[in-house]
Amino acid sequence: MNIIILSRNARLYSTSRLVEAAELRGHSVKVVDVLKCYMDITSDKPTIFYKGEKLNDCDAVIPRIGASVTRFGTAVLRQFEMMGIYPINESVAISRSRDKLRSLQLLSRKGVGLPITGFAHSVDNTEEIINLVGGAPLVIKLIEGTQGRGVVLTETKKAAESVIDAFHELDANFIVQEFIKESGGSDIRCFVIGDKVVAAMMRTAREGEFRSNLHRGGEAKIVKLTKDERATAVQAARIMGLNMAGVDILRANRGPVVMEVNSSPGLEGIEKATGKDVAGMVIDFIEKNARPNKTRTKGKG
To answer: How do residues 133-159 score in pLDDT, each as one tens digit?
Structure first.
């Protein structure tokens, strides 16, 4: 197979591991910087060019599109879909998962466990929103934030009001969520491929920090999931329409609650914590499922 990996840096752990796993299985792999692509959008033969070369001779695409380039990156991916090339994650699903508010609404509609979440546009609703999520302490998240950036834990009502007012002044879009105290600063990253959780790790925040992201100095270790946690992770990925996803779960007293569904989950933390060849599992899935024109939306989203 000819596989394209959309990644801005071929040296990143996740990208290099996917290249290694694909080549080990005899596939040809090209790493393409999505921002250096340009497209011929026509009714009869859509085409993508990269450094003067047509990217038509391809069987599958693995999108590793950063949050800062989501709009252009998904446009390029949509062009691949219009060309009939199989993406492990489709453009519509990636866009859906990148919008925190929309993704939570979709999960809520299907009955997936979530933290109590509030959203408002007017500063006049600040006190009502704080009360809605159970008061302080509470978590405030920028909708566009990633890897723990734009996430604030406020210990008191006064602090929450100050942060909310400041975000309103900046005209930033954000959500307010209850703080799941019983999780103890830990969350679980479930790596889902297809309809199965293939690996899972527990991430624990470093001392003095509540965000458990590994980029924030958190520590990771292998964890045994409950039946409910596995089912929740798989359901969340399916609702987003993602074949490959990192589903972040907190252990609340009422059961597992989903914090986020990541459409471009990193491989380094999960492989090192679990010792599993997750990159190989991604390529295995593509081998079994990649067919011309086998997409749900066919670039229509």
So the answer is: 999 999 998 876 555 567 888 999 999
